[in-house]
Amino acid sequence: MKNIFFVFYLYLKMVSNSLQNFYSSHKKYISFCMLFFTLSLSICSNAQEKEFNSAIVKVNKYIEGSLVTPYSDVNVPLIIFIMDAGAINKDGNDHMSKNDTFKKLAHELARSGIATYRYNKRLFTMDKFGIKEHEISLDHFIEDAESIIEYFSRNKNYKKIFVAGHGQGSLVGMIAAKEKANGFISIAGNAMPIDQVIIEQIAKQAPGLDKSAFVAFKELKEKGRAVSYDPALESIFRYNLQPFMKSWIKYNPTEEIAKLSMPILIIHGEKDIQVELFQAEQLTEAAPQAESLLVPNMNHILKEIKGGRLENHKSYNEPHRKIMPEVITSIVKFVNQ
């Protein structure tokens, strides 16, 4: 047994001596290779980091968001993104799904020389400031968007400022942009007032309930409160949500977009199952100066859908999907023209 260990010891010593001799004779070459490898990693890492810069910018106590700028941030245009209805965060996600649509779009635009600012709506700071649900209105969202436009206008770092609203954010954006921005982009925005949109959707999905919704919205407009509605509509007309709905239904998107005397781009996907295509067509009719982009096979969150509704729904939780390239190129062209 001792002889076996002794032989094994001699073998290890021989291997060690061989490696030491090899290192001594090739020391300069090995050192050069290691240095080259380290420098290569550093260069690649820096190249990836320097595609764009990202920083958290606080506009006021309610608004904090991500400013993404091209690495050579010299007098570039800025787009302010406003998110869709509900608890959709600055990246385009909610608590049930993750698609990172607007995070990806911000990065792509930065690579094309355009800065972006995207932020969480006031809904995300309600608890922090003790704000109750019935105290929130669409006018607060408009005020916040106006504050952001004014904030970036004051610092004079950007040659032009554009507002881009998605879904509900389209309405908020077109109101906030008036006489404050250099251009407006509507992404999957409605043309009709939200009460009409909801009534039409209910008529298709739950025939019969649309009549109850119509009566409830009429009460909300005329009396300030709705009490005569079917319990099945509680998610729309619950007591604490009614003040927000009342503030929302008073705005007509086609009337608001017609007030804009600035360049307008209207983007819509032909496979949007949340906002129908005719809404984009009506917005375009209301704003004759607007450019319109209708993207085949694109859904509400700007992703390509080759199949049916199942694939469409699944895409909302598939962050690996890319933004449709037509969206990026059209925005870049619109902003730079």
Automatic annotation (TrEMBL):
Keywords linked to the UniProt accession: Hydrolase
Pfam families the record matches: Hydrolase_4
Keyword Hydrolase found: yes
RNA-binding as UniProt keyword: no
GO molecular function, one term: carboxylic ester hydrolase activity
Domain Serine aminopeptidase S33: start-end pairs: 101-300
Protein name as it appears in the record: Alpha/beta hydrolase
